[in-house]
């Protein structure tokens, strides 16, 4: 299996996993019923796919489940009982005790839970709707092959949910927890994947997410209609496209115009699409990449005594090394070289952008306040220019959050400073004018 190259910086930038009191993309897609499925889902978010066939296959499975609206056919309590039962021996070893972790009643309940799970999974994979999902065929055939094992023949013959004899419990206990435990765990593993598929399908249906189409690697094609960040309550969507003839976007806009939010929306869509998951958009087509690297919230590296600027330099160097190895990458830099003086930042932004644009097998988005860099960059045919505008309503800036073509010279930092009365506070100890609220100053 081929996986998408990425790193902790990118995972943090995109808030793939929640931190402290904030949720992440994992939480948004997680409506699973089992602890095992939560583990599978986390691994999927940690290791997106980099194989066109596997991405489209997973996407097709989830899309079919979304269209059918099937509910997960197992109760969470049934899994809790079965998992506790199957892992009891491990707990006993871990604790180094000779005493049984489970009572006879718990063993009997565990055995019955496993029997019910095995019988229900057979019923589920034999359903007409499920057999019609061609993309699910490999998993379905693997499940059936396990169920057809002669060891499970007595399980399939068990009737109803009534109590079974003590001797039968003992025999099943030996079968499930010792002789054929690996096969039972494989079956549970398949059910965890089904739980993930159906969980994500439910999210897609409720949020009206679209299923992207993965295209051949190396073609550097990206087309998204109506993309927005899924965590926003009232998002403004944008249409966006890139290709080898226009493989670098130079994005400008004033503070709070929405550049960082747009960058997160696009890069999150690209990241999640490589998982085979639905995304917050109306349409998406993308060429599979070898890797995705973003630089949106880059911290100083105090551990090696690195300033913010040097941390930026190291980040660019890492990307350059990967590009030089011939890898097809999706790269984002938000405010490149903000950690140095304007003159150096200008020169470095221009030179690095031109060098990036020469890598036709990769796509790049670079946001910047250094609009003067655009004069030189406009001489490079493969660099495109878009901006997020600001409209002034008297002394108050207003934002459309909608992409427009070109470069903007919008600057209103001092307007915001004056509106907040900072100079008056410094001069007079308080603000005399009535405060005017702009809204959220989040970019």
UniProtKB/TrEMBL annotation:
<keyword id="KW-0238">DNA-binding</keyword>
<dbReference type="InterPro" id="IPR036187">
    <property type="entry name" value="DNA_mismatch_repair_MutS_sf"/>
</dbReference>
<dbReference type="GO" id="GO:0005524">
    <property type="term" value="F:ATP binding"/>
</dbReference>
<keyword id="KW-0067">ATP-binding</keyword>
<keyword id="KW-0547">Nucleotide-binding</keyword>
<protein>
    <submittedName>
        <fullName>MutS-like protein</fullName>
    </submittedName>
</protein>
<dbReference type="InterPro" id="IPR027417">
    <property type="entry name" value="P-loop_NTPase"/>
</dbReference>
<dbReference type="Pfam" id="PF00488">
    <property type="entry name" value="MutS_V"/>
</dbReference>
<dbReference type="InterPro" id="IPR000432">
    <property type="entry name" value="DNA_mismatch_repair_MutS_C"/>
</dbReference>
<dbReference type="GO" id="GO:0006298">
    <property type="term" value="P:mismatch repair"/>
</dbReference>
<dbReference type="GO" id="GO:0140664">
    <property type="term" value="F:ATP-dependent DNA damage sensor activity"/>
</dbReference>
<dbReference type="InterPro" id="IPR045076">
    <property type="entry name" value="MutS"/>
</dbReference>
<dbReference type="GO" id="GO:0030983">
    <property type="term" value="F:mismatched DNA binding"/>
</dbReference>
<feature type="domain" description="DNA mismatch repair proteins mutS family">
    <location>
        <begin position="246"/>
        <end position="434"/>
    </location>
</feature>
